[in-house]
Amino acid sequence: MRSIWKGAISFGLVTIPVKVYSASEQKDVAFNQVHRTDGGRIRYKRVCTVDGEEVAYSDIAKGYELPSGEMVVLTDEDFADLPLTTSKRIDVLQFVPLEQVDPIYFAKAYYLEPDAQGSKPYVLLRDALEGSGMVAVVKVALRQRESLATLRSRDGIFVLETMLWPDEIRAPEFAFLEEDIDVRPQELQMASSLIDTMAGDFEPDQYHDAYREALEAVIEAKAEGKEVVQPTEAEPEAAATDLLAALRASVEAAKKSRTGGEEKKPAARKTAAKKPAAKKTAAKKPAEKAAPRRRKSA
Questions:
Q1: CATH class name, domain 5-27+73-168
Q2: Cβ atoms of residues 249 and 240 within 8 Å
Q3: 6-26 pLDDT tens trace
Q4: pTM recorded for the entire structure
């Protein structure tokens, strides 16, 4: 991995030099815009809307459009003068229980690696944080943007998860929240039963991106000149008209799905258990035939 930022965790009077790495990567299939008839790449020119001339990248600045339509142009010096106190620091603000941080705030995750001279304080803070059962709320500036973040330990490594600011979270304003919707106890009980039936441990490796896999197969087939075969889809089941009936049917389907998977293993064990019995039967047959032959010789 390649580090994207270097700085230090500031924990009281303790400074821990660290490198920051992206903890995730998206596996999307990347496309280029091309000319449909000959496959040529489509290129875009940076053209000024005022004089119509193409603009070199070095002459491009950042502008903020006012409600009046006027444009405020900002220079590199304007950004350099901004009060980013955390430009090279991860400032620990406080420690809070993880369950108090709503996941809706989380934006992106990063790994933190200590520099050689920061290994001991890194491990010290990590062990103390793990023992506390809390996460650190910090402030950090990445790519010229200051963010709140949490700092927690995962597999012995600090994970920095940047967060949205509170005013960046939209409030849901949906009409149904104002309605008085009556849920019957039987429906609630059946929904709870469905949850219990489908409950289990989270094992992320069992999930996969079926769309991306199918898309990659299509690309590979077309690149090799093969015929593209569309996967067959299962027939959709008829929708139940009654909510309680739909819940009951869902519970039964979930139970069958689970028991069906469990019945396969016992079946294999029964088959294996029959093999020794077959050997015993085969061993008895020669003994029964040999007895008459001895009587004839007598």
A1: mainly beta
A2: yes
A3: 999 998 888 999 999 999 887
A4: 0.68
